[in-house]
Design brief:
With 173 residues, this protein is of the alpha+beta class. The chain has a domain at 62-172: Ribosomal Protein S8, Chain: A, domain 1 (2-Layer Sandwich), CATH 3.30.1370.110. The chain is built from four helices and five strands; from the N terminus they run αβαβαβαββ. Strands 1-4-5-3-2 form a five-stranded mixed β-sheet, with helices on both faces. Strand 2 (91-94), helix 3 and strand 3 (121-125) form a beta-alpha-beta unit. Helix 3 (100-116) runs parallel beside helix 4. The longest helix is centred in the middle third of the chain and has 17 residues, at 100-116. The protein is elongated and about 100 Å long.
């Protein structure tokens, strides 16, 4: 290793003269304005401006059928991650035992709250309704409602551990 040459007295004096008017940063008042984050305002959905239309022409789904929906612009990779349950679930709603009207009100309230809290992914349990002979009414209603909800980007049936065909993951804007 090379040894650094000694500093001459002349160089020391020159250095001291150069820095004599410099103050330590700790004593200087910082005149740095805080960075303002981008003010992107999301269009908020409120409970009062949500209306769902029932579409009898919409094909019904069976109790064991997997649900899947995505708005345009959602990447296939994102859908794959959603289907595999790889998103953090911010909150969950269980609609078991509710009437269609109760479930509709609970879901609107839940999704509005989730959007206000800026949740990205939520879990909704609608059940499979095996005890009814016809198609599951609540599952079909939830399927239709979510397709109409403005803050929903995508949804799909949950993994078997999280409810399978009786529950869904919902990806929000």
């Amino acid at each position: 290793m090379k040894k650094t040459p000694p500093i001459s007295d002349e160089d020391r004096q020159l250095f001291r003269d150069t820095i004599k008017n410099i103050r330590c940063l700790n004593t200087i008042e910082k005149n740095i304005s805080p960075r303002n984050p981008l003010t992107y305002k999301r269009k908020r959905t409120t409970e009062s401006n949500i209306t769902f239309t029932e579409n009898p022409d919409e094909p019904s789904v069976l109790a064991t059928e997997q649900l899947r929906y995505a708005t345009s612009g959602v990447r296939q990779n994102t859908l794959r991650k959603l289907k595999r349950g790889q998103f953090y679930i911010d909150d969950s709603l269980d609609l078991h035992g509710m009437t269609i009207a109760q479930a509709k009100h609970a879901m609107i309230k839940f999704l509005t709250s989730a959007q206000t809290r800026q949740y990205q992914c939520v879990h909704i349990i609608h059940g499979k309704s095996h005890h009814t002979l016809d198609k599951p009414k609540l599952k079909n209603a939830v399927n239709q409602w979510l397709r109409q909800y403005p803050a929903v980007l995508a949804f799909c049936s949950a993994t078997p551990q999280e409810g399978g065909a009786g529950a869904i993951y919902v990806l929000l804007k």
